[in-house]
Amino acid sequence: MSMVESDNNRSETFLKGFRGPCPVCGYHLNEPTNSRCPECGSRLRVQLVAPFHFYPWHALLMGIVVSFGVCFDRLLLIIHGYVWSNGQNPPWGFLGISTLLILVLCVAGFFVWRYKTRLERMSKPKSYVWYTFSFLTPIITAVVQYYLIMMLVRGGL
Ligand SMILES: [Zn+2]
User: Fold this and answer.
1) Are 39 and 23 in contact (CB under 8 A)?
2) Distance 29 CA to ligand 1 centre (A)
3) What is the mean pLDDT of the chain?
């Protein structure tokens, strides 16, 4: 007996004694005779599913995504300012700062994805450090971006 057949038999056995709402449409099922909801036609399957858990890598990816927003906002403002000011030379330095930060965020996202299993198995105190860091990532990105832009304006870059 294959795994799929075994799962189907288990679902049918469970459904034969089931009374309750269809998870899709809410229609009251009364010991259905097959694995389809008679009201909406959805396939009914019995599964053992782990509940969703918000791990540090979820928080880190959210922080990186929000940080992308910070960088893209600056990038679009620079492009908008250049286009509407009839400037002669494109502001490569300013564009480069935002582009560099976007590349750094891409690398960070790659490493978060690569080590997500390690981040899931981390102890609680360590994971709280990563949750906090995730929350601060967009702020750190904005501050670093501002600092680099000010350095460029003052001729330090
Ligand atoms: Zn239904």
Assistant:
1) no
2) 8
3) 91
Average pLDDT over residues 76-98: 90
Angstrom distance (rounded) from CA 61 to CA 49: 23
pLDDT at 99 over 90: yes
How many residues are present in the chain? Answer: 157
46, 35 in Cβ contact below 8 A?
no
Nearest residue to 149 via CA among 103, 100, 104: 100
For 63, other C-beta atoms within 10 Å of its C-beta total 25
Calculate mean pLDDT across residues 75-99: 90
How far apart are the C-alpha atoms of 126 and 65, rounded to whole Å? Answer: 22
Decide if 105 contacts 138 (C-beta within 8 A).
no
φ and ψ at residue 30, rounded to 5 degrees:
-125, 90
21 alpha carbon – ligand 1 mean position (Å): 8
Task: Give bridge partners of residue 21 from the DSSP assignment.
Answer: 28
Q: How far is the CA of 42 from the centre of ligand 1 (A)?
A: 6
CA of 5 to the centre of ligand 1 (A): 23
